[in-house]
Protein backbone atom coordinates (compact mmCIF):
# COMPACT_ATOMS: atom_id res chain seq x y z
CA UNK A 1 0.00 0.00 0.00
CA UNK A 2 1.19 3.51 -0.81
CA UNK A 3 2.52 5.41 2.20
CA UNK A 4 0.04 7.61 4.05
CA UNK A 5 0.46 10.98 5.74
CA UNK A 6 -0.56 9.47 9.10
CA UNK A 7 -0.91 5.89 10.45
CA UNK A 8 -3.34 3.29 9.15
CA UNK A 9 -4.54 0.91 11.87
CA UNK A 10 -6.71 -2.21 11.78
CA UNK A 11 -9.41 -2.02 14.47
CA UNK A 12 -10.19 -5.75 14.22
CA UNK A 13 -8.26 -6.80 17.31
CA UNK A 14 -9.88 -4.13 19.45
CA UNK A 15 -13.31 -5.44 18.47
CA UNK A 16 -12.58 -9.16 18.81
CA UNK A 17 -9.04 -9.75 20.10
CA UNK A 18 -7.58 -10.76 23.47
CA UNK A 19 -6.99 -8.19 26.21
CA UNK A 20 -3.36 -7.87 25.14
CA UNK A 21 -4.33 -7.37 21.49
CA UNK A 22 -6.96 -4.82 22.48
CA UNK A 23 -4.47 -2.78 24.44
CA UNK A 24 -2.00 -2.94 21.56
CA UNK A 25 -4.56 -1.44 19.12
CA UNK A 26 -5.61 1.14 21.72
CA UNK A 27 -2.01 2.21 22.24
CA UNK A 28 -1.45 2.58 18.47
CA UNK A 29 -4.61 4.67 18.21
CA UNK A 30 -3.60 6.88 21.13
CA UNK A 31 -0.10 7.34 19.68
CA UNK A 32 -1.51 8.34 16.28
CA UNK A 33 -3.85 10.86 17.91
CA UNK A 34 -1.04 12.17 20.10
CA UNK A 35 1.43 12.62 17.23
CA UNK A 36 -0.79 13.46 14.25
CA UNK A 37 -4.33 14.01 15.54
CA UNK A 38 -5.45 11.70 12.68
CA UNK A 39 -5.67 8.02 11.88
CA UNK A 40 -6.91 5.83 9.05
CA UNK A 41 -8.97 2.97 10.43
CA UNK A 42 -9.74 -0.28 8.64
CA UNK A 43 -11.66 -3.42 9.72
CA UNK A 44 -13.98 -1.39 11.93
CA UNK A 45 -17.27 -3.19 11.32
CA UNK A 46 -18.64 -1.12 8.42
CA UNK A 47 -17.80 -2.70 5.06
CA UNK A 48 -16.66 -0.95 1.88
CA UNK A 49 -19.97 -2.01 0.28
CA UNK A 50 -21.98 -0.38 3.06
CA UNK A 51 -19.97 2.80 2.57
CA UNK A 52 -20.73 2.66 -1.19
CA UNK A 53 -24.44 2.26 -0.41
CA UNK A 54 -24.30 5.21 1.96
CA UNK A 55 -22.74 7.38 -0.77
CA UNK A 56 -25.38 6.19 -3.27
CA UNK A 57 -28.07 7.30 -0.79
CA UNK A 58 -26.32 10.60 -0.26
CA UNK A 59 -26.25 11.18 -4.02
CA UNK A 60 -29.98 10.41 -4.23
CA UNK A 61 -30.63 13.00 -1.52
CA UNK A 62 -28.60 15.76 -3.19
CA UNK A 63 -29.74 14.93 -6.77
CA UNK A 64 -33.16 16.50 -6.00
CA UNK A 65 -34.00 20.05 -6.99
CA UNK A 66 -32.78 22.90 -4.79
CA UNK A 67 -36.41 23.86 -4.08
CA UNK A 68 -37.12 20.38 -2.72
CA UNK A 69 -34.06 20.44 -0.47
CA UNK A 70 -34.72 23.99 0.77
CA UNK A 71 -38.11 22.88 2.12
CA UNK A 72 -36.16 21.08 4.85
CA UNK A 73 -33.51 23.69 5.65
CA UNK A 74 -31.71 23.61 8.99
CA UNK A 75 -33.27 26.33 11.11
CA UNK A 76 -31.81 26.07 14.62
CA UNK A 77 -28.24 25.85 15.91
CA UNK A 78 -29.45 24.01 19.00
CA UNK A 79 -31.12 21.31 16.89
CA UNK A 80 -28.62 21.38 14.02
CA UNK A 81 -30.56 19.10 11.70
CA UNK A 82 -31.59 19.45 8.07
CA UNK A 83 -30.29 20.84 4.80
CA UNK A 84 -27.82 23.71 4.35
CA UNK A 85 -27.28 25.12 0.85
CA UNK A 86 -24.08 26.33 -0.78
CA UNK A 87 -22.86 29.42 1.11
CA UNK A 88 -24.58 28.61 4.43
CA UNK A 89 -21.46 27.96 6.45
CA UNK A 90 -19.21 30.84 7.51
CA UNK A 91 -15.81 29.54 8.51
CA UNK A 92 -13.74 32.54 7.48
CA UNK A 93 -13.74 31.77 3.75
CA UNK A 94 -16.06 30.88 0.87
CA UNK A 95 -16.95 27.19 0.84
CA UNK A 96 -18.45 25.47 -2.21
CA UNK A 97 -20.62 22.73 -0.81
CA UNK A 98 -24.08 21.71 0.41
CA UNK A 99 -24.79 19.52 3.45
CA UNK A 100 -27.42 17.50 5.25
CA UNK A 101 -27.28 16.85 9.04
CA UNK A 102 -28.95 13.72 10.47
CA UNK A 103 -29.36 12.95 14.17
CA UNK A 104 -30.61 10.07 16.24
CA UNK A 105 -33.46 11.68 18.23
CA UNK A 106 -34.58 14.67 16.18
CA UNK A 107 -34.97 14.37 12.43
CA UNK A 108 -37.99 16.53 11.58
CA UNK A 109 -36.15 17.90 8.54
CA UNK A 110 -35.31 14.53 7.02
CA UNK A 111 -37.11 13.42 3.83
CA UNK A 112 -39.44 10.45 4.35
CA UNK A 113 -38.64 7.04 2.89
CA UNK A 114 -41.12 7.89 0.13
CA UNK A 115 -39.65 11.32 -0.67
CA UNK A 116 -36.17 9.79 -1.07
CA UNK A 117 -36.58 6.01 -1.39
CA UNK A 118 -35.37 4.28 1.76
CA UNK A 119 -33.25 7.28 2.85
CA UNK A 120 -34.49 7.83 6.40
CA UNK A 121 -34.34 4.15 7.35
CA UNK A 122 -30.91 3.72 5.81
CA UNK A 123 -29.45 6.78 7.52
CA UNK A 124 -30.85 5.73 10.90
CA UNK A 125 -29.09 2.37 10.54
CA UNK A 126 -25.84 3.87 9.27
CA UNK A 127 -25.94 6.41 12.09
CA UNK A 128 -26.23 3.63 14.66
CA UNK A 129 -23.13 1.93 13.30
CA UNK A 130 -21.17 5.18 13.44
CA UNK A 131 -22.39 5.82 16.97
CA UNK A 132 -21.28 2.36 18.12
CA UNK A 133 -17.93 2.77 16.41
CA UNK A 134 -17.39 6.12 18.11
CA UNK A 135 -18.04 4.57 21.52
CA UNK A 136 -15.53 1.77 20.76
CA UNK A 137 -12.88 4.20 19.54
CA UNK A 138 -13.31 6.37 22.63
CA UNK A 139 -13.23 3.31 24.87
CA UNK A 140 -9.85 2.44 23.36
CA UNK A 141 -8.61 5.91 24.30
CA UNK A 142 -10.07 5.56 27.81
CA UNK A 143 -7.97 2.43 28.27
CA UNK A 144 -4.76 4.33 27.58
CA UNK A 145 -5.84 7.53 29.35
CA UNK A 146 -6.51 5.56 32.57
CA UNK A 147 -10.17 6.53 32.58
CA UNK A 148 -13.01 4.22 33.58
CA UNK A 149 -13.66 2.04 30.55
CA UNK A 150 -17.25 3.25 30.42
CA UNK A 151 -16.28 6.93 30.83
CA UNK A 152 -17.19 7.82 27.26
CA UNK A 153 -20.19 5.49 26.86
CA UNK A 154 -21.65 7.21 29.94
CA UNK A 155 -20.76 10.66 28.58
CA UNK A 156 -22.50 9.73 25.30
CA UNK A 157 -25.50 7.88 26.76
CA UNK A 158 -27.97 10.69 25.98
CA UNK A 159 -25.89 12.27 23.24
CA UNK A 160 -27.30 13.10 19.84
CA UNK A 161 -24.20 13.56 17.65
CA UNK A 162 -24.74 14.38 14.01
CA UNK A 163 -24.08 12.53 10.81
CA UNK A 164 -23.33 15.06 8.11
CA UNK A 165 -23.60 14.26 4.41
CA UNK A 166 -21.50 16.61 2.29
CA UNK A 167 -21.75 17.24 -1.45
CA UNK A 168 -19.12 19.33 -3.16
CA UNK A 169 -20.54 20.26 -6.55
CA UNK A 170 -18.46 20.04 -9.76
CA UNK A 171 -16.49 23.26 -10.01
CA UNK A 172 -13.55 24.71 -11.90
CA UNK A 173 -10.21 24.03 -10.30
CA UNK A 174 -9.25 27.71 -10.78
CA UNK A 175 -12.18 28.81 -8.56
CA UNK A 176 -11.26 26.46 -5.72
CA UNK A 177 -7.63 27.49 -5.97
CA UNK A 178 -8.36 31.22 -5.86
CA UNK A 179 -7.69 33.11 -2.63
CA UNK A 180 -10.38 32.75 0.03
CA UNK A 181 -12.15 29.85 -1.72
CA UNK A 182 -12.15 26.15 -0.87
CA UNK A 183 -14.43 23.18 -0.95
CA UNK A 184 -14.21 23.57 2.83
CA UNK A 185 -12.12 26.29 4.49
CA UNK A 186 -9.41 25.24 7.02
CA UNK A 187 -10.99 24.58 10.41
CA UNK A 188 -10.89 22.28 13.41
CA UNK A 189 -13.92 20.24 14.43
CA UNK A 190 -15.33 21.11 17.83
CA UNK A 191 -16.69 17.84 19.28
CA UNK A 192 -14.68 14.98 20.77
CA UNK A 193 -13.63 13.40 17.49
CA UNK A 194 -14.93 12.99 13.93
CA UNK A 195 -15.28 9.83 11.86
CA UNK A 196 -15.00 10.70 8.19
CA UNK A 197 -15.80 8.69 5.07
CA UNK A 198 -14.69 10.01 1.70
CA UNK A 199 -15.31 8.88 -1.88
CA UNK A 200 -12.41 8.34 -4.27
CA UNK A 201 -12.09 11.95 -5.54
CA UNK A 202 -9.62 13.29 -2.93
CA UNK A 203 -8.84 16.83 -1.82
CA UNK A 204 -8.96 16.42 1.97
CA UNK A 205 -5.77 17.85 3.48
CA UNK A 206 -4.63 18.03 7.09
CA UNK A 207 -2.04 19.99 9.05
CA UNK A 208 -0.87 17.40 11.59
CA UNK A 209 2.01 19.41 13.05
CA UNK A 210 0.32 22.83 13.18
CA UNK A 211 2.84 24.26 10.72
CA UNK A 212 0.39 25.26 7.96
CA UNK A 213 1.99 22.53 5.91
CA UNK A 214 -1.11 20.67 4.73
CA UNK A 215 -0.65 17.07 3.58
CA UNK A 216 -3.20 15.01 1.64
CA UNK A 217 -5.39 12.43 3.38
CA UNK A 218 -5.67 10.36 0.21
CA UNK A 219 -8.83 8.24 0.03
CA UNK A 220 -8.30 4.53 0.67
CA UNK A 221 -11.22 2.23 -0.08
CA UNK A 222 -12.67 0.44 2.95
CA UNK A 223 -11.16 2.88 5.46
CA UNK A 224 -12.44 5.87 7.35
CA UNK A 225 -10.28 8.59 8.85
CA UNK A 226 -10.79 9.78 12.41
CA UNK A 227 -9.53 13.07 13.79
CA UNK A 228 -9.26 14.52 17.27
CA UNK A 229 -11.57 17.51 17.75
CA UNK A 230 -11.48 20.45 20.18
CA UNK A 231 -13.30 18.89 23.15
CA UNK A 232 -10.97 15.91 23.24
CA UNK A 233 -7.99 18.25 23.06
CA UNK A 234 -9.39 20.10 26.08
CA UNK A 235 -10.23 16.90 27.97
CA UNK A 236 -6.74 15.49 27.38
CA UNK A 237 -5.09 18.79 28.38
CA UNK A 238 -3.44 18.98 24.92
CA UNK A 239 -1.99 15.47 24.94
CA UNK A 240 -4.28 14.80 21.98
CA UNK A 241 -4.40 17.60 19.43
CA UNK A 242 -7.22 18.87 17.30
CA UNK A 243 -5.76 19.87 13.93
CA UNK A 244 -6.74 22.10 11.04
CA UNK A 245 -8.03 20.43 7.90
CA UNK A 246 -9.55 21.58 4.62
CA UNK A 247 -10.86 20.28 1.34
CA UNK A 248 -9.28 21.80 -1.72
CA UNK A 249 -8.66 20.54 -5.24
CA UNK A 250 -6.98 17.14 -5.41
CA UNK A 251 -3.30 17.44 -6.29
CA UNK A 252 -2.61 17.18 -10.03
CA UNK A 253 -1.26 13.98 -11.52
CA UNK A 254 0.91 14.18 -14.64
CA UNK A 255 -1.98 13.60 -17.04
CA UNK A 256 -4.24 16.29 -15.60
CA UNK A 257 -4.32 19.90 -16.69
CA UNK A 258 -4.80 22.79 -14.30
CA UNK A 259 -7.77 24.07 -16.37
CA UNK A 260 -9.77 21.05 -15.47
CA UNK A 261 -13.28 20.93 -13.96
CA UNK A 262 -13.24 19.13 -10.61
CA UNK A 263 -15.76 16.29 -10.39
CA UNK A 264 -18.39 16.23 -7.65
CA UNK A 265 -17.08 14.95 -4.34
CA UNK A 266 -19.11 13.24 -1.60
CA UNK A 267 -17.99 12.74 1.98
CA UNK A 268 -19.78 11.92 5.22
CA UNK A 269 -18.71 13.00 8.69
CA UNK A 270 -19.92 11.72 12.05
CA UNK A 271 -19.27 14.44 14.63
CA UNK A 272 -19.02 12.84 18.06
CA UNK A 273 -20.42 14.99 20.85
CA UNK A 274 -21.11 14.12 24.51
CA UNK A 275 -24.61 14.44 26.01
CA UNK A 276 -25.66 18.06 26.42
CA UNK A 277 -25.50 17.93 30.23
CA UNK A 278 -21.90 16.69 30.40
CA UNK A 279 -19.14 19.06 31.55
CA UNK A 280 -15.72 18.66 29.98
CA UNK A 281 -12.67 19.69 31.97
CA UNK A 282 -9.03 18.71 31.49
CA UNK A 283 -7.72 15.51 33.01
CA UNK A 284 -4.33 16.58 34.30
CA UNK A 285 -1.63 13.92 34.46
CA UNK A 286 1.15 13.77 37.01
CA UNK A 287 4.04 15.98 35.97
CA UNK A 288 1.82 18.42 34.03
CA UNK A 289 1.65 22.02 35.17
CA UNK A 290 -2.11 22.12 35.64
CA UNK A 291 -5.27 22.45 33.57
CA UNK A 292 -4.81 24.41 30.34
CA UNK A 293 -8.55 24.96 29.83
CA UNK A 294 -11.58 25.90 31.85
CA UNK A 295 -14.51 23.56 32.25
CA UNK A 296 -17.14 23.85 29.50
CA UNK A 297 -20.63 22.45 29.26
CA UNK A 298 -20.85 20.20 26.17
CA UNK A 299 -24.35 21.32 25.16
CA UNK A 300 -23.57 25.03 25.36
CA UNK A 301 -20.25 24.51 23.60
CA UNK A 302 -21.90 22.72 20.71
CA UNK A 303 -24.72 25.20 20.23
CA UNK A 304 -22.37 28.17 20.45
CA UNK A 305 -19.93 26.74 17.89
CA UNK A 306 -22.69 25.58 15.56
CA UNK A 307 -24.28 29.00 15.65
CA UNK A 308 -20.91 30.63 14.83
CA UNK A 309 -20.51 28.35 11.80
CA UNK A 310 -23.97 29.19 10.51
CA UNK A 311 -23.73 32.94 11.05
CA UNK A 312 -24.74 33.38 7.37
CA UNK A 313 -28.18 31.83 7.88
CA UNK A 314 -28.96 31.83 11.62
CA UNK A 315 -29.21 34.56 14.22
CA UNK A 316 -26.09 34.57 16.45
CA UNK A 317 -26.15 33.05 19.94
CA UNK A 318 -24.00 34.82 22.49
CA UNK A 319 -21.39 32.56 24.13
O1 LIG B 1 -15.28 16.56 3.28
C1 LIG B 1 -14.35 16.27 3.99
O2 LIG B 1 -13.52 15.41 3.69
C2 LIG B 1 -14.15 17.02 5.31
C3 LIG B 1 -15.41 17.60 5.90
C4 LIG B 1 -15.15 18.33 7.17
O3 LIG B 1 -14.03 18.54 7.56
C5 LIG B 1 -16.27 18.84 8.00
O4 LIG B 1 -17.44 18.79 7.56
O5 LIG B 1 -16.01 19.30 9.13
FE1 LIG C 1 -14.00 19.08 9.65
TrEMBL record:
Keywords: Dioxygenase, Iron, Metal-binding, Oxidoreductase. Belongs to the iron/ascorbate-dependent oxidoreductase family. InterPro entries: DIOX_N, IPNS-like_FE2OG_OXY, IPNS-like_sf, Iron_ascorbate_oxido_reductase, Oxoglu/Fe-dep_dioxygenase_dom. It comes from the Eukaryota. GO terms for biological process: small molecule biosynthetic process. This is 2-oxoglutarate-dependent dioxygenase ecdK. One of its GO terms (molecular function) is dioxygenase activity.
Amino acid sequence: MASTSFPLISFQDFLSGSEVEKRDVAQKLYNAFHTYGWVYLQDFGISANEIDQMFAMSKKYFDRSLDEKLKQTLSSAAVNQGYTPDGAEANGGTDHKECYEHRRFTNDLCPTDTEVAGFHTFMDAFYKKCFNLSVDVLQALALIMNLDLDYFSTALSKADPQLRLLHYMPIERSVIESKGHARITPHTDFGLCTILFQDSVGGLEVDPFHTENFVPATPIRGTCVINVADLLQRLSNDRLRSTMHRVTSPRLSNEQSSGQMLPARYSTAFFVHPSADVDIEPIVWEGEKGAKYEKVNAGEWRTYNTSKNYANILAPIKG
